Amino acid sequence: MQNWKDYLDRSWSLVNEYFHSNQIDPSKLVDHELVRTHLKACQKSTPKGVSISKNRSRLSLRFKVASKSQTSDNGCNENFTRDGCINTLAKALAVFNQLKEFDKESEFWSWYESEIKGAQVLVDDVLTIGDAIEIVKANYLNGYDKCGRKRSDEKSKVNTLAGYHQAYGTYHQKLNPALKLTGENIISEIMRNWETLYHKKNKGFKMAYAACCKLLRDTKLSSELDRVTSHFGAIRVVKKTEMQTIDLETFLDFRARALGLNGYKLTKAQLNNIESRKSWFKAACINLVYGFRCSEFKAIRNLDEPVTIDG
Question: How do the domains of the chain map onto residue ranges?
Fold first, then answer.
């Protein structure tokens, strides 16, 4: 079979072509809207005779074989996520090629079970949570961002590592890496670290939960993942982040205190870092006017001078 990475690269290329031809900017899409858009792009990019269908949170491939006169859904061990959609398109391309290669249908189905379904079964609990963390990290660093750009590009290395830590690393570092990778242990670790957030039903728990489920998704342990999702059920955020306001007079007073203006005194340490404080307050002032997102806000300091991530 053609190298799996080649199929993935081809999938991303087809999806990016779809976005470009339909003038879709994926960087402006978030959460479920982003996933739905990727599914449509993948469905429009499948080879002739193979299609992608969705049933709740699972994706399937539809195609004909000699023994069946009708197309039918065939599980492919992929979930309705952005990466799941891309993987399913890659599998559709592989199925299209392999349907032409095999002389016997039994040989095709044997290949399909091992290469396309590829569900892993725990054998003596050989995988640990630490093993899974490394697999997720490698997949992330060698994958693509939401705009279809390769994260392995050296120019984006710093941003890629920061993105990994924000999405997964900050949660995975709290898990016990020596534990066996089972649904039961993932449930236990989630509750050990984030039980308070679980009861509050806030966004912080949802992000931690998704990061932990990623360990089972990337290792293709579907039955263990089902055990976790069945335990917690649908995760709905009840407690929203409260928006805070500040009037202009209060903000200007805050600025004076931070920069030692209008009679306010700074400590020696604060005076030694006065240039950095001025830079950050310039960024804060711009953000007050334009309302940037957090990542955009942190980049403001780079507008007129180069600033490193630890600067």
Answer: 4-116, 129-232, 248-299
